[in-house]
Design a protein that fits this description.
Strands 1, 2, 3, 11, 12, 13, 14, 20 and 21 form a nine-stranded mixed beta sheet that branches. This protein has an eight-stranded mixed beta sheet with strand order 7-6-16-17-18-15-19-22, sandwiched between helices. A three-stranded antiparallel beta sheet has the order 4-10-5. By secondary structure, the chain is α/β, with parallel strands linked by helices. Helices cover about 35% and strands about 30% of the residues.
Length: about 425
């Protein structure tokens, strides 16, 4: 049930702060597997704001398997666009031709694309619908002001003046997590001096499900296919240039966009709003404390150069849900640090590895230094000629790896 009322249960089993994809999918995964658990999701966002979210996300094959297990994917699939293949180029804005250095076929298995592009509003709608079916309390337009661990449970103070008691509190409240700060969990952070401009365009010709990543001197320019003759753009620029572009009128903005996009899909037209976000690397030094865990961007914020930010969050969900469900079925305390440390051990290495990888890639490709350009182009060309390595990269991008949690393998908890 979606509600602004406070649950009447004296002690809840789980409170999740953050009502976006990570928070909702975690609640759904756990409640579906163990219906007896009492769960509440605290969502600070304005009511129904997700319905007008213009953004789209690349959802990897492993996350799609999880969404299918959560009984969400059948609703989302007709509205989503499979990524059939991907090309990578390396050039300057002024270059008349952009040679393709690396290509990827889009399937991890016959009939299973390595990723789909899904508009955020459709993903959120499906998760909200499933949460309502499972009678998960979603407390809207409320936030967690403070919390205290008294040993047996968390005392969670809400912005409406009420207090919840819960055996476990999960912070899924974003990269600038307030709850992470209250828990006194430190982070490793450095800014990139870049911003990502996100927008949607319509074009004359069909994209045929092809994703493109153009490495330009200021950073990657990603063209991601949406349903119909539309594409979602993630456009990296240096911070000052991004602010200038965001302040420009539509004519100037579209001219700059066209210079980077090219003419291969015909005339372009900007659709809807444009937004800009600063890029940086944020890695929490710890993911857990007694009766407290971080998930999603609250635990790790990485550069979007690999398109793995949201998918890392879904991998957190699959791992944490599996541990909580196994712990609950054994009749043990789901807030125990023993179980939570299993979650940290499972997830922390991968997120640090991905953070370092994206940081290196961004530094390598976001420059116009001739010797480095030659080195990276030779490297891309070598990978193009190594089918096994290309297949490895596809499997990694899809999230289908050894030791993955059950949900990411398409198995029930």
């Amino acid at each position: 049930m979606s509600s602004s009322a406070t649950p009447t249960d004296k002690i809840l089993d789980l409170v999740i702060a953050g009502g976006a994809y990570v928070g909702l999918s975690l609640a759904v995964a756990i409640k579906q597997a163990v219906p007896s658990l009492k769960i509440a999701v605290i969502d600070a966002a304005p009511k129904d704001s997700w319905k007008t979210d213009p953004r789209a996300s690349a959802i990897a094959a492993a996350a799609i398997r999880m969404l299918r297990q959560l009984q969400c994917w059948d609703e989302i699939e007709p509205l989503s666009q499979p990524i059939n293949d991907m090309i990578i180029t390396d050039s300057r804005n002024s270059d008349p031709v952009r040679p393709v250095f690396l290509t990827f076929e889009g399937n991890v298995a016959p009939g299973e694309p390595f990723a789909y592009m899904v508009e955020n509003k459709y993903l959120n709608a499906s998760l909200h619908r499933r949460a309502e079916e499972l009678e998960i309390a979603v407390l809207e337009e409320l936030s967690v002001d403070n919390f205290t661990n008294n040993g047996n449970e968390m005392l969670i103070d809400l912005s409406n003046g009420k207090t919840l008691q819960s055996r476990l509190l999960v912070a899924a409240d974003g990269v600038r997590s307030k709850l992470r700060d209250i828990a006194d969990i430190k982070t490793v952070y450095w800014p990139y001096g870049q911003m990502g401009i996100v927008c949607t365009v319509e074009h004359e010709r069909p994209h045929n499900g092809r994703a493109e990543e153009h490495f330009l001197p200021a950073g990657p320019f990603a063209i991601l296919p949406l349903k119909g003759n539309r594409s979602s753009l993630v456009w990296n620029e240096r911070e000052n240039d991004a602010k200038r572009l965001m302040a420009a009128d539509d004519i100037v903005f579209e001219a700059e966009l066209e210079a980077r996009f090219g003419h291969h899909l015909g005339a372009l037209k900007l659709v809807g709003d444009r937004r800009a976000f600063p890029f940086g690397l944020t890695l929490a030094r710890s993911f857990v404390k007694p009766r407290f865990a971080l998930a999603g961007d609250a635990a790790h914020g990485i550069h979007p150069i690999s398109g793995q930010g949201l998918n890392l969050g879904f991998r957190d969900v699959a791992a944490l849900a599996q541990i909580i469900v196994e712990t609950a079925r054994l009749g043990l305390d789901i807030g125990s640090i023993v179980g939570l440390e299993r979650y940290q051990a499972w997830r922390r290495f991968e997120t640090v590895r991905m953070g370092i990888t994206t940081d290196v890639l961004n530094r390598l490709f976001s420059n116009d230094i001739s010797p480095i350009r030659l080195l990276r182009d030779v490297g891309l060309g070598l990978v193009e000629r190594m089918p096994r390595m290309k297949n490895y990269f596809i499997q990694e991008a899809a999230g289908i790896t050894d030791g993955a949690p059950k949900l990411l393998l398409g198995e029930a908890l």
